Amino acid sequence: MNKILTKNRDLTQKLGFSLLTLMTLLTVIPIIGTVIYIIVQGAPAISWEFITGFPREGMREGGILPAIIGTFYLTLGTAVFSVPLGIAAAIYLSEYASENRLTRLIRLAIINLAGIPSVVYGLFGLGLFVLFLNFGTSILSASMTLSIMTLPVIISTTEEALRAVPQSFRTVSISLGGTRWQTIRRTVLPQALPGIITGVILGLERAAGETAPILFTGAAFFLPRLPHSPFDATMALPYHLFVISTQVPEMPIQIQYGTALVLLVFVLGMNVIATIIRSRARAKRQW
Amino acid sequence: MNKIVIENLTLQYSDGTESLHDISLDIVANATTVLFGPAGGGKSSLLRCLNRLNDLADVESVSGRIILDGENILDPNIDVIALRRKVGMVFARPVVLPFSIRGNLTYGLELAGEKRKSRHDEAIERSLKLAALWDEVHDRLDEPAIALSGGQQQRLCLARSLAQEPEVILLDEPTSGLDPISTAKVENALEELKKLYTVILVPHSVQQAARTSDFAAFFLQGKLIEYAPGTEIFTNPQNQRTEDYVTGRFG
Amino acid sequence: MEKDLNWREYIITRLIKFSGYSAVIFVSLIFFFLLKEGLPTLAEVPLGDLFDLRWYPIESYYGILPLITGSLLVTIGAGLIAVPFGIGTAIYLAEIAPRWVRNLLKPLVELLGGLPSVVLGFLGILILSPTLRVTLNLPTGLTALSGSLLLGGIAIPTVVSIAEDALDAVPKSYRDAALAIGATRWQTIWRVTLPAARSGVLTAVMLGVGRSIGETMTVMMVTGNAPVLATGLADLFSPVRTMTATIAAEMGEVANASTHYHVLFFIGMVLFLISMTVNVAASAVVFRQKKRAERVLS
């Protein structure tokens, strides 16, 4: 082969690889930068009072406890509805459904649910839960709205975890006189559990960080107390960050960064836990 | 005495891969019946009909009857769960469940709702002894079953199906992945088992078929070619194709 | 006891099957409620007014064209960023980077997908917009461009994740064959691997862009929210307002069942239909389910 041609090809490859590496760096560095920047800027705001206190002076002083607790309640509420439903739906798809039209329709519906804009979930929650079912602007309405939004994530990750369990386990269990449900409960589910937990956490992580779906279904601008029942509205970290960074004039910058940091820790903490569970389970797995 | 009577069994998978054509066969109790022949002949399919494991596969159609103790097990209304407890199965690859040795052995009993520890211990000892595994594992029953060697795992699988006191044992090439010593152990165990149970074996070689069979059925492309006592079929086959296969002219 | 078992089994199976259909039920419910609250718009606002250039609800101007073009503009801008960077990163991770780099960076990129959009909007207000205003010498930094840059960032993890999976799924033998006849790795990537993974890469792009069109908080916070008709990419440097931001910003203040309320639901309906179109199209590209029944042949 012609030497110059070879040289050209090598040069092209070198340039191409460099370009792609550069693009990757430009993608990755801002991510790391964002996280580090918020940590650095927000850390000074973090204090015992900030975490456990109520907002004072039009939220310009004091803590963000109601928002933290609110996000905790919303996440919990979301889990209550979406986890059993999502896991059951995944079991259906993995263990019961045969490949027919109905199953294809279900899969299409799940893909669609995953793609619906979050603010449209907010509209839906307003229409169904707040107004039609008369739950009002409440933790209940917001949690149910977030649940439906979280459902596709939980279903698809759980289904993947179930399908990863070797088919032979099922065959053996059935051959020993197990019913389908016994087989699922005693053999398939325990083996898929780490994968399911990971998926659930990743779904809830998304719910915890969302603002748009709770805007008109359960989020409160400011509450001087903690919610008493599921029918109360609540403050929430993401909405609070939105409020103090756009709606409150002369908001001390430190409180804004502090709130962003707490939200980040909440959400990324869940992400890290999920990752740890996944890698531990992979290392321990017997198949 | 006939334990199982198979009458005109015909089976078709939906993807058309493998099927059984008009099989009629009487399987004798307390003996080893061997189903042998080249791959794709329908031996495994027949085996999987006997405990209705084919329910899990895409079966297009099945006709004929399989009478076990006077009951047609192909009848959609029979209690399939009870049938599978009565007809145990061991697969070609040893599939131990991801539990302890004990957990594997008591799995079937627990499925059946048997919770008494004394019954569990009884079943564990009896089945492990029958499968010739007791001496090797009785002092480490709570270790994960996956830690056993391949041969031990396969005998554990055998013990696991024996634990719920079946009446018929189906074995689908149970020694195909094992070394000669492990194979001998399994074969010896089978020799003991047939005194108690009806054993139906798909062997992994003609030699194994000859060694283990009381009765032998030769399958070719979904058809039953010849069925006779083992002593006859391997020494004096009636059918030309059986003879060609047994003597190694094709395989 | 046997009976007991059968009963439980029956009930559980029913519950599982019912849950299996839940996704279909919810999508239908969502669509139903959007129609129920959105369709009255057509009776209340003449079609000509609806597709007019002026959005000023206080004086009953419900022209949604500026909102649609606002969404389009921001999304196109986001796509121009997310597609090259997303695919470039995916190729780097799948084809060039050593395994450990990939295992480190891919979760990191996916982490970006987990960042709450409100945090990105927050940083957009405090850092990105002022920077853009100064460097580009604009009257305000809250522009479509700020929205596009952040939305691009939000779409990148989706693009990278799906495209990388698709590239990774290309059998190694394809690459080996190309390398064996003397192609360089670079040529192999462009002529063999990328074409082989094209349906997955296409899906990645569609879903990434689909996600940006539905993104709400970030764009509401950084695009300036001026409902002005966008006519070209030059408008990237001025404030715009998207469909999603309009709903989010105004829904809290409208009276139930007012015309304004209905129009906002109507916009939600349009968004729903857009996302459905994108997702149906994307899944049509990749719908290849393996046959499920496993049967060990004799």
TrEMBL record, chain A:
The chain crosses the membrane at residues 20-40, 64-93, 105-133, 255-277. PROSITE patterns: ABC_TM1 (PS50928). Residues 68-274 form the ABC transmembrane type-1 domain. It is a multi-pass membrane protein. GO terms for cellular component: plasma membrane. Keywords: Cell membrane, Membrane, Transmembrane, Transmembrane helix, Transport. One of its GO terms (molecular function) is phosphate transmembrane transporter activity. It is found in: Cell membrane. GO terms for biological process: phosphate ion transmembrane transport. It comes from the Bacteria. It holds the Pfam family BPD_transp_1. Its main location: membrane. Belongs to the binding-protein-dependent transport system permease family. CysTW subfamily. PANTHER family: PHOSPHATE TRANSPORT SYSTEM PERMEASE PROTEIN PSTA-RELATED. This is Phosphate transport system permease protein PstA. It comes from Candidatus Desulfolinea nitratireducens. The lineage of its organism: Bacteria, Bacillati, Chloroflexota, Anaerolineae, Anaerolineales. The gene is pstA.
TrEMBL record, chain B:
GO terms for cellular component: membrane. It comes from Candidatus Desulfolinea nitratireducens. PANTHER family: ABC TRANSPORTER I FAMILY MEMBER 17. This is Phosphate ABC transporter ATP-binding protein. InterPro entries: AAA+_ATPase (IPR003593), ABC_transporter-like_ATP-bd (IPR003439), ABC_transporter-like_CS (IPR017871), P-loop_NTPase (IPR027417), PstB-like (IPR005670). Keywords: ATP-binding, Nucleotide-binding, Transport. It comes from the Bacteria. SUPFAM superfamilies: P-loop containing nucleoside triphosphate hydrolases.
From TrEMBL, chain C:
Residues 68-282 form the ABC transmembrane type-1 domain. It is found in: Cell membrane. It is a multi-pass membrane protein. GO terms for cellular component: plasma membrane. PROSITE patterns: ABC_TM1. One of its GO terms (molecular function) is phosphate transmembrane transporter activity. InterPro entries: MetI-like, MetI-like_sf, Phosphate_PstC, Phosphate_Transport_Permease. It comes from the Bacteria. Pfam families: BPD_transp_1 (PF00528). Part of the binding-protein-dependent transport system for phosphate; probably responsible for the translocation of the substrate across the membrane. Belongs to the binding-protein-dependent transport system permease family. CysTW subfamily. PANTHER family: PHOSPHATE TRANSPORT SYSTEM PERMEASE PROTEIN PST, PHOSPHATE TRANSPORT SYSTEM PERMEASE PROTEIN PSTC. This is Phosphate transport system permease protein. It comes from Candidatus Desulfolinea nitratireducens. The gene is pstC.
